[in-house]
Every structure is written in structure tokens, then in C-alpha cells.
Amino acid sequence: MDPYMLRRNIEELGLESDSDTETQDLSNQRDKRTGRGPTQMRGIWGRRESEGLIQVTCNEFGQPDDEVATKLSNFMGTIIRDKIIFPLTYSSWHKVPREIKNNLWKILQHKFDLHDSMKTWTMQKFGKKLRDWRQLNFKDQRVEEAHFEYLLKYWSTDQAREMSRRNQAS
Questions:
Q1: How many domains would you assign to the chain?
Q2: Domain carrying residue 68
Q3: Which of 125, 134, 42 is nearest to 81 (CA)?
Q4: Which one of 89, 91, 105, 124 counts the least CB within 10 Å of its CB?
């Protein structure tokens, strides 16, 4: 995500950064193009309030059921992958403080017209996005080194290994 868009969105929402590290432009860090790059959703992050909210309709289970669902899901991924908005220092989604979860919901509501019944679905989806982002053999340039080291230490504990064994068995 562009540092300008990130700062502007954080200021608009009145959120404070959990990290002093600025988001770096990934294109300057690569010598050779290796693929299409990470999803940035610039069209949504750069969207102004005057353009209005993106309308999302949901089914009876609180899940989006229109063509906007993919945009919403991809945008949620950009939020989880941003080290300033969401640090990777939590061992599980259940341990993420309610205040941070509310900030994630607030960011979504700032860009999308979401019904309150969708909050449960979005929180579950954020949890899934977080699990996908924290793969053991994965170290992306956008992940802060201290956060990744913390996760590696946690994953090597007996408690984390036991939880992994239990989860693999079920």
C-alpha cells in the first residue's frame, strides 16, 4: 500500500499506529520483477468519503452475497497484512484485544456499507486471513522483523506445538 494512502486513512479514522515503522514501497526493494506482487486494493484505500461507501448486501447468515464480496475479502487481507494497522505479535485471533478488532471493523465501515449482522462473519474472515498470513515458512518484506521473531519463538514452545498436534488431529 502506498505510504501516503496508509497515513491518510489512519488519520481519517483517528487510529494510532502500533508501530513506528513506515510502510515501504516494495517496488524499490526488488531488482527483478518476479510476479504480479501483493494485492494492494488502491482503488478502495484511495477512495474518498465524498465518493460514498461501497454497498454490500448479505444473506441470512451475514455473508456478502454479491460481486462486491471478493473486493471486501481482498481488502480485509490488505488490512491484516499491514504491520502498522495489525502487528503479528498475537499467538491466536482469540488473543487479539477487542480494541484492535473494533478498529478493523471501523476501517471496513469507513469504506463499505456493512450491516451489523456481518460483523461476526468479518471477524471470522479476519481470523482466517491472519492464519493464512502467518505461515511458518513465510517471511515477507512487509512483516516486521520483531513480530516475526516473536512468532517463531512462540511456535517453538511446547504449548504451541501441543496445540498444533491437537489441531492436526481434529
A1: 1
A2: 3-24+38-45+52-169
A3: 134
A4: 124
